[in-house]
Amino acid sequence: MTVHPMDDKTVVITGANSGIGLETAVSLAGSGANLILGCRNTEKAAAAVAQIRRRSGNENVVNHRLDLASLISVRSFADALSYLDHIDVLINNAGIVLDEREETAEGFEAMFGTNYLGPFLLTKLLLPQLRAADHARIVNVASIVHGAAIGGIRYGDLDRNGTFGPWRVYGESKLAGILHAEELANRLEGTGIVASSLHPGVVDTQFGKEGDTGGATGAMMNLKLDSVRSRALKTPAQGAATTIHLASSPEAAEISGAYWVNSEQKKTYSWTRKHGDSKLLWSVSDRMISAAS
Fold it and tell me: Helix, strand or coil for residue 72?
């Protein structure tokens, strides 16, 4: 894994208290970046900050509380970062997977709200500081599970009040992150800001095992992970490689709107796509946030 110099770059990363996010933070801090974490659990975040500082040798690591399932919290987090005159990299890393339907603070289905709608608003709020940077980057950690969103996002059923299929809903939330990066690339063309999305690989982390997933989905995930854990899964550090590539490499700075796997550009699943879907998603997202204000 190659980490390019990040001396004095300001990096904002969500969900960096464990797993892929933590390893991404350690590597970028070790390469000289000034890190601002956005984590929900303040105790875990404090431990993560201490670990990142110790492992990277970089003291310029802080956390501000961020709960992506609350748009009020997202706005408060953005306000807390108002002291930054610019942001070089925003990494939308945090995510959840749930076995049953839950709701965000504003009443949105929790996976769509947390994995996509919160990051969508956060990105919009931080855009002025991203524009103020020299060639800023926005990195959305998505997933190959976007392939579960057959036929694309079901805009008529975003509340999921009918049948709830966890992987379908999770897949749509991750497809939304991909479409978000594509539409950012369209809207920010010529500004010097590059937007990307990625699949980190199948990674051996506690994601989906510590309170996020329960019931049948959790049991299925645990059985599958335990059966291949020692021979097939990436370590968190390996899983962080593509995020680090997109955040730091000169190559990635030249390509906007792409979807990446193993630090290479890949095509998304064709059966998830519809003409104009990224523009429609942006419009729907704006309406949802406005209605919740």
Answer: helix
61-65 vs 89-92, strand pairing mode? unpaired
The DSSP bridge partners found for residue 62 are: 36
pLDDT, residue 3, reads 82
Q: Considering the domain 10-202+237-286 in this protein, what is its CATH number?
A: 3.40.50.720
Give me the active site residues, please.
170
Q: Where are the domains of the chain?
A: 10-202+237-286
DSSP class of 147: G
The phi, psi pair for 285, rounded to 5°, reads: -65, -45
Q: Burial, 216: exposed, middle or buried (Cβ in 10 Å; 0-12, 13-18, 19+)?
A: exposed
* 127-172 per-position pLDDT tens digit: 999 999 999 999 999 999 999 999 999 999 999 988 899 999 999 9
Quick: pLDDT tens for 204-258.
Answer: 554 443 333 344 444 444 444 444 444 457 788 889 999 999 999 999 999 999 9
